[in-house]
Amino acid sequence: MANELQSLSDIFQNRLFRIPDYQRGYAWQQPQLVDFWDDLTNLQQDRFHYTGLLSLKPLKKEETVSWGEDRWLLQNGYKPFYIVDGQQRITTFVILLNEILHFVKGLKGNEEKPDKDIFLKYESLENITAKYISRKRPPKCMVITYLFGYEADNPSAAYMRYKIFDEPHAGTVYESYYTKNLKQAREFFADNIKALYEESDDGMKAVDFLYRKLTQQLMFNVHEIGDDYDVFVAFETMNNRGKKLTNLELLKNRLIYLTTLYDRAA
User: Fold this and answer.
1) How far is CA 243 from CA 73, 140, 159, 239, 249, in A?
2) To the nearest 5 percent, what fractions of the chain are helix, strand and coil?
3) What pLDDT shows up at residue 253?
C-alpha cells in the first residue's frame, strides 16, 4: 500500500486508470474550474501545491477483462487501477493537458509539423501524449488506448474519446449532464490558455511554465486501497467529504455493491 506525495509526472508512470461504473461522472462546473485555474496560475516557480487525496484500487488482470483491446498495455508492464477518490481532479488535469497540447499544435508554424518535432519544456508532444494521454499499439498503431478514461459502458467513455480527445468517429455520441460538464471544462481551458498566451510578454514561455506546474508542482497524496478494504463504502465516505453525492448516485453505488455480494454468495 502506497501513501506518499506524488506529482502528476510520478502518478502517470506505467499506470492505466479507469473510472469504475459505481462512480458518478464529471461533476465540476465553473466555480471549481475557476478555483483550479487560479491555484495553478498563481503558483510560483519554486513552490508546490497540495492538490488533495488520490485513492487508487489496484486491480488483478482478471478484473480487467471488460477493458478489451486496452489490455495490451498490461502486457507491456502497465498496472491497472480504479480511481476511487480524486476523479474530478484527475479528469480536470487530463482535459487541461490535452487542451495545452491542442493549443501548441495549432500555433503558427506548428500546424504541419509532426508531434515529434513540437516541444514543450524540452519534451516533444509525441512523448507527452504517450505519457499522459494515449498510446498506440504497435506495429500498425490501429488501436488507441487512453491512459485515463471511463469503463466502456459509461456514456462519458465515448464522449471523452471522441469529443475531448478528438478521435475520429462516425457514430453517435450520447450526451448527459456529466458530458456537458466535460464540454464546459474543455471550453473553459481552451479560452484561458489562449488568453494566457496572448496576454503574456512571452506567450510560449507562459504556456511552457503552465505545463511544468501542471505536471510537476501539483502534489497528490496517493493512497492504494488494499483488497481487505470495502471500496464501495470508501467511495461513499470519501465523496461525502467533498461535493455531496445525489440520492440517485448513492442508490446506484449501493445497488452495484449488493450485486457483488450476490455474486459472492452464488
Assistant:
1) 33, 43, 23, 7, 12
2) 50, 20, 30
3) 45
pLDDT at 249 exceeding the cut of 50: no
State the burial class of residue 212 (Cβ atoms within 10 Å of its Cβ: 0-12, 13-18, 19+): middle
* pLDDT 10s digits, 104-135: 999 999 999 999 999 998 999 999 999 999 99
Q: What are the φ/ψ torsions at residue 264 (nearest 5 degrees)?
A: -65, -40
Listed in sequence order, the residues at least 6 apart from 255 whose beta carbon sits closer than 8 Å to its beta carbon are none
DSSP string, 186-226: HHHHHHHHHHHHHHSSSHHHHHHHHHHIIIIIEEEEEEEPP
Buried/exposed 218-242: b ≥16 CB within 10 Å, e otherwise: bbbbbbebeeeeebbebbbeebeee
216 with 210: CB under 8 angstroms? no
- For residue 119, list its beta bridge partners: 124
- Map grid coordinates 471511463 to a residue: 150
- C-alpha cell belonging to residue 93: 488535469
Give DSSP secondary structure letters for 65-115. GGGGGGGGGGGGT-EEEEEEE-HHHHHHHHHHHHHHHHHHHTSTTTTTS-G
For 37-87, the pLDDT digits (tens) are: 999 999 998 899 999 999 999 999 899 998 999 999 999 999 999 999 999
Q: Which three cell numbers stand for residue 218?
A: 501539483
DSSP state of 179: H
CA distance 84 to 194: 33
